[in-house]
Amino acid sequence: MADTTIAREQLKSIIERVERLEEEKQAIAGDIRDIYAEAKANGYDVKTLRKVVQLRKKDSDQREEEEAMLTLYLHALGMAPDFEPASE
């Protein structure tokens, strides 16, 4: 019986901690929305700001690899201008 009580209390504690963190997450998400709204009101493009935030999370090698793949795909689809490699 004691084991059941301990397990029940442990489960309740876990659920309550998750609920508390979910509430904090919602509050933080609201704060982030407010900041983007402020940026938009000041004339910034929010979509571009979101992309910059996303890119800053990545290291330079990862960004370069993604940019190279994007360029490759755009060229394959005829969506990017052809370029001449630099002459040596």
What characteristics describe this protein?
88 residues, mainly alpha
Structural features, described:
The chain has helices at residues 2-41, 46-56, 60-76. It is 77% helix and 0% strand. The protein is mainly α and 88 residues long. The protein has three helices and no strands. The protein is elongated. The longest helix has 40 residues, at 2-41. The protein has one domain (2-76). The N and C termini lie far apart (81 Å).
Number of helices: 3
Strand proportion: under 5%
Order of helices and strands: HHH
Give a count of the beta strands, DSSP E runs of length 2 or more. Answer: 0
Low-confidence stretches: none
Cα Rg: 24 Å
Helicity level, as a percent range? over 70%
Mind describing the biggest β-sheet? Answer: none
Structural class from helices and strands? mainly alpha
End-to-end Cα distance: 81 Å
The mean pLDDT is: 92
3D shape: elongated
In total, the number of domains comes to 1
Task: Give the gist of this structure.
With 88 residues, this protein is mainly α. The protein has helices at residues 2-41, 46-56, 60-76.
Q: Strands, helices and their partners?
A:
Elements: H1 2-41, H2 46-56, H3 60-76
